[in-house]
Records
---
Amino acid sequence: MTTCVVVKKGNEIAIASDSLVTFGDTRLSNAYEANEKIFKVGDSYITLAGTAAHFPVMRKLLLEMGDECKLHSREEVFDTYSRVHAILKEKYFLNPKEDEDDPYESSQITSLIANPYGIFGVYSYREVFSFERFWGIGSGRNFALGAMHAVYGQAASARDIAEIGVQAGAEFDKSSSGPFRIFSIWAK
């Protein structure tokens, strides 16, 4: 899958991802395709974990929403991703079923958002989290979380911590690999 992280330290916010795409046992490295896993919508950087099909769909959908795509608070992210869910079902034929006992339809998406207003995580039932320090998603997340936890107090910047996170994911997760994409912004 992937390793994607968001970090906030002081007034700096960073988002980072690896660049490997996998199809079962097949790896499509950056040498064969650019594999950009972070995209910008307004003043927000967004990354996803899950099927590669999410990236073109979500990029197009969020950009087409224009002013309706609001991502500056936990509530705005929830409202936007709730509208996204309806559009995914209607326009892009999303299969919202995961398990028989699911309490809600699934959007089948795990996402991280970084913007001047904070760092947010969105999960498949549209659960939204607003993180104070850092978080990670994808198959390499546990390695990234451990590495970021270990260096958070000593590292000079959010960017440094994010880079350490994705490097740890790529080092130990078979579905993550460099090169890495890292973007830094300043909090308001």
---
Amino acid sequence: MSDCCQWIGFVKKVIRFEIGLYKQERMPLPLIAATLIMANKQIDRPTFQELWEEIKMLDILRFAHEKGREEGEEKGKKEGKEEGKKEGKKEGRIETAREMVLEALEESLGIVPVDVADGVMSVSRPDMLKGLLRQAVKCKTLEDFERMLELANRRIAA
């Protein structure tokens, strides 16, 4: 084997070794390109072109990977934001419904005991809160409302 062929084989091995280091994130891409440029006078044009294409492909793959990750993060943030808005609106409606039940109960019967207020605050289903609001407006005694609240909490537990 001639010295030229041995040199080309050696340069290929070095470049491919450096590419392996790059893939392990242990070597920067520009250093691989610098190695190839320094070997430019020692190897033939087709070999140089072949190795240069491999190096350029690494850069393209890195760019595509980073771009894909960025787009995925953006999409994830957007979806997370939308989900957070929906959840926040739902929680806001439930909190408002609880407050309305307590307001109506206070208006109908006067002071609302802490245990009753805690019971209302533990209800998280909008349909149950709607029913409790009707009861708070209609009921004549606190005991009547407490029975309905107990039923609502039983249904939630079931």
